Structure prediction request, 433 residues.
Amino acid sequence: MREYLLTLCVTAAVTYLLTGPVRKFAIAAGAMPEIRARDVHREPTPRLGGIAMFGGLCAGLLVAAHLANLKPVFELSNEPRALLSGAGLIWLLGVLDDKWGVDALVKLGGQMIAAGVMVLQGLTILWIPVPGVGNVSLTPMQGTLLTVALVVITINAVNFVDGLDGLASGMVCIAAAAFFVYAYRLWYGHNLEAAAPAALFAAVLMGMCLGFLPHNMHPARIFMGDSGSMLIGLVLAAGAISLTGQLDPDALKLFEGSERAAVQATVPVYIPLLLPLTVIAVPVADLLLAIVRRTWKGQSPFAADRGHLHHRLLEIGHSHSRAVLIMYFWSALIAFGTVAYSVQSASVWILLVITALSAVGLGLLLMPRFTPRAPRWAERFVPPRYRRRAVPPEAAPEGAVPGESREPVPAGLHGATAIGDRSRFTRTSTHHG
Prediction:
């Protein structure tokens, strides 16, 4: 675990330190496109944040290659080199798109080429577990097509959801954390060395997102651009492919005993097949809805619009920050709920907790103007708008009620939430008689 934590910290530190210089470079290079109709930010913001994230990826893999417990991953497997090759191609394509713009079909072709490069170097799906059948081997052609499809879907799902400050990096970080928990459990708990590359990819991906997130939170100082969104989408897909396609379910020795016991025991085997979809369930749902919506209107599926899920949250009254947090919540619930179910599939409490949290999430969606208040012991750790400090009687101004809250109120809104979370807050003044 210490080696993974060290790799994560190095990746995050390098990404964080590189983002500042990359921002200056992006401004000097003119990678600051004009505001488009579908954008929610109000002033030009530099892109090319993917350059810093790619630097963090290289640094993390370089450090991991020299650690004693992670060195065998590079010696016994070619998957880290395959990941770096595919990531380099997709990152270069993203940089070109951030600076000059690339046609959607050209980007799709580049994504397929990057996936094909990884397949040629051994990062491919070799078999899949099928309920009622068992372990089914794939032909090279079937494995290649399935691998390329998974990579392209994941990249575009992450790219589509990159519409609010900190949204894509945070959601992918949550997905990577859930993926790391599952992969590390297989590697450490079941002593399966084939799960080590997937755990490494997830740790590096978490570092990339955590290092970039402080610069990308609202209001963002820099965007990751396609060079970053496509990069983290490819790394996430690579971990899913490594865990799903390279890990032999027979190694878990779960197909033994009675038929009923085998069915219950094989539930964790099918989780790697489903987890790549559940950890990006929200982006994939947004992707499918966007394709249906645009095709229904007679537009290209790749045509940009303001109909994404995060745009809908803003339209119903949620602030920028709250819309991002709601998307975080649903991503974490789906991803970690799936992982928890894989560990205790027979436990009723898991389903009850997931159901209760889903009800909480639906309540948050329907209350865009509800402002929660933190308990007094936690007020120092939250923003001022979530505090409820009372004015001491001796400090209360003339005419004020002792103990009355002096909570800042949005000017002109009287408690309503402003879209974009950019409203200025002023204190209510009391005129002395």
